[in-house]
Amino acid sequence: QVQLVESGGGLVQPGGSLRLSCAFSGSAFNIYAMGWYRQAPGNQRELVADITSSGTTNYADSVKGRFTISRDNAKFAVYLQMNSLKPEDTAVYYCNAKIPWADEYDFWGQGTQVTVSS
Protein backbone atom coordinates (compact mmCIF):
# COMPACT_ATOMS: atom_id res chain seq x y z
CA GLN A 1 0.00 0.00 0.00
CA VAL A 2 1.25 3.49 -0.89
CA GLN A 3 0.93 6.50 1.37
CA LEU A 4 1.62 10.06 0.28
CA VAL A 5 2.21 12.96 2.67
CA GLU A 6 2.38 16.52 1.38
CA SER A 7 4.07 19.41 3.16
CA GLY A 8 5.21 22.93 2.48
CA GLY A 9 1.93 24.75 1.98
CA GLY A 10 1.10 28.03 3.64
CA LEU A 11 0.29 31.68 3.19
CA VAL A 12 2.42 33.70 0.80
CA GLN A 13 2.14 37.13 -0.78
CA PRO A 14 1.63 37.55 -4.51
CA GLY A 15 4.94 37.20 -6.30
CA GLY A 16 6.33 34.97 -3.60
CA SER A 17 7.53 31.37 -3.71
CA LEU A 18 6.76 28.08 -2.01
CA ARG A 19 8.16 24.60 -2.35
CA LEU A 20 5.83 21.67 -1.84
CA SER A 21 7.14 18.25 -0.95
CA CYS A 22 5.48 14.85 -1.19
CA ALA A 23 6.89 11.90 0.72
CA PHE A 24 6.10 8.48 -0.75
CA SER A 25 5.84 5.45 1.54
CA GLY A 26 5.76 2.08 -0.19
CA SER A 27 7.76 0.20 -2.73
CA ALA A 28 8.82 0.70 -6.33
CA PHE A 29 8.66 4.50 -6.24
CA ASN A 30 10.79 4.70 -9.36
CA ILE A 31 8.09 3.11 -11.55
CA TYR A 32 5.33 5.50 -10.48
CA ALA A 33 4.35 8.59 -12.42
CA MET A 34 3.97 11.41 -9.91
CA GLY A 35 1.77 14.46 -10.16
CA TRP A 36 0.57 17.56 -8.39
CA TYR A 37 -3.08 18.53 -8.66
CA ARG A 38 -5.00 21.38 -7.09
CA GLN A 39 -8.57 22.15 -6.20
CA ALA A 40 -9.92 25.60 -5.41
CA PRO A 41 -13.31 26.09 -3.72
CA GLY A 42 -16.11 25.49 -6.18
CA ASN A 43 -13.76 24.14 -8.82
CA GLN A 44 -12.88 20.67 -10.02
CA ARG A 45 -9.51 19.16 -9.21
CA GLU A 46 -7.05 19.97 -11.98
CA LEU A 47 -3.62 18.83 -13.00
CA VAL A 48 -0.82 21.26 -12.18
CA ALA A 49 2.20 19.23 -13.24
CA ASP A 50 3.33 15.65 -13.55
CA ILE A 51 6.54 13.74 -14.07
CA THR A 52 6.96 10.27 -15.49
CA SER A 53 9.16 7.54 -14.09
CA SER A 54 11.80 8.53 -16.65
CA GLY A 55 11.63 12.22 -15.73
CA THR A 56 9.51 13.66 -18.52
CA THR A 57 7.52 16.61 -17.23
CA ASN A 58 4.21 18.17 -18.18
CA TYR A 59 2.63 21.40 -16.97
CA ALA A 60 -0.73 23.12 -17.07
CA ASP A 61 -0.57 26.21 -19.27
CA SER A 62 -1.43 28.40 -16.29
CA VAL A 63 1.77 27.48 -14.44
CA LYS A 64 4.30 27.05 -17.26
CA GLY A 65 7.42 29.08 -16.61
CA ARG A 66 6.53 29.59 -12.95
CA PHE A 67 6.33 26.08 -11.45
CA THR A 68 8.85 23.25 -11.61
CA ILE A 69 8.18 19.63 -10.72
CA SER A 70 11.04 17.31 -9.81
CA ARG A 71 11.55 13.93 -8.21
CA ASP A 72 14.27 12.30 -6.14
CA ASN A 73 14.12 8.54 -6.61
CA ALA A 74 16.68 8.00 -3.84
CA LYS A 75 14.54 9.86 -1.32
CA PHE A 76 11.15 8.63 -2.59
CA ALA A 77 10.00 12.21 -2.93
CA VAL A 78 8.52 14.62 -5.44
CA TYR A 79 8.63 18.39 -5.24
CA LEU A 80 6.83 21.37 -6.71
CA GLN A 81 8.75 24.63 -6.76
CA MET A 82 6.26 27.45 -7.18
CA ASN A 83 7.52 30.92 -8.09
CA SER A 84 5.78 34.16 -8.99
CA LEU A 85 2.68 33.01 -7.19
CA LYS A 86 -0.65 34.61 -8.00
CA PRO A 87 -3.89 34.80 -6.02
CA GLU A 88 -5.46 32.41 -8.53
CA ASP A 89 -2.95 29.75 -7.45
CA THR A 90 -4.77 29.54 -4.13
CA ALA A 91 -6.02 25.99 -3.67
CA VAL A 92 -5.49 22.72 -1.88
CA TYR A 93 -2.61 20.95 -3.59
CA TYR A 94 -2.64 17.17 -3.80
CA CYS A 95 0.11 14.71 -4.58
CA ASN A 96 -0.72 11.74 -6.81
CA ALA A 97 1.12 8.54 -7.58
CA LYS A 98 0.05 6.16 -10.28
CA ILE A 99 1.25 3.42 -12.56
CA PRO A 100 -0.17 4.36 -15.96
CA TRP A 101 -0.77 0.80 -17.17
CA ALA A 102 -2.38 -0.40 -13.92
CA ASP A 103 -5.47 1.54 -12.87
CA GLU A 104 -5.54 -0.02 -9.42
CA TYR A 105 -2.27 1.69 -8.56
CA ASP A 106 -3.55 5.25 -8.17
CA PHE A 107 -3.01 6.96 -4.83
CA TRP A 108 -3.62 10.42 -3.35
CA GLY A 109 -2.27 12.41 -0.47
CA GLN A 110 -4.41 14.36 1.97
CA GLY A 111 -3.56 17.74 0.46
CA THR A 112 -1.83 20.90 1.61
CA GLN A 113 -3.33 24.38 1.52
CA VAL A 114 -1.65 27.12 -0.48
CA THR A 115 -3.02 30.62 -0.04
CA VAL A 116 -1.68 33.54 -2.06
CA SER A 117 -2.86 36.81 -0.61
CA SER A 118 -1.59 40.20 0.47
Walk me through this protein's architecture.
- The chain is mainly β and 118 residues long.
- The protein is built from no helices and eleven strands.
- It has strands at residues 3-7, 10-12, 18-25, 33-39, 46-51, 57-59, 67-72, 77-82, 91-99, 102-108, 112-116.
- A hairpin with a 5-residue loop joins strand 5 (46-51) and strand 6.
Number of strands: 11
Biggest beta sheet summary: 7 strands, mixed
Order of helices and strands: EEEEEEEEEEE
Instruction: Give the quaternary arrangement of the chains.
Output: single chain
* Global structural class: mainly beta
Question: Gyration radius, to the nearest Å?
Answer: 14 Å
Outline:
0% of the residues lie in helices and 55% in strands. By secondary structure, it is mainly beta. The relative contact order is 0.32.
List the SSEs and their pairings.
Elements: E1 3-7, E2 10-12, E3 18-25, E4 33-39, E5 46-51, E6 57-59, E7 67-72, E8 77-82, E9 91-99, E10 102-108, E11 112-116
Comma- or semicolon-separated keywords:
118 residues, 7-stranded mixed sheet, 11 strands, 55% strand, globular
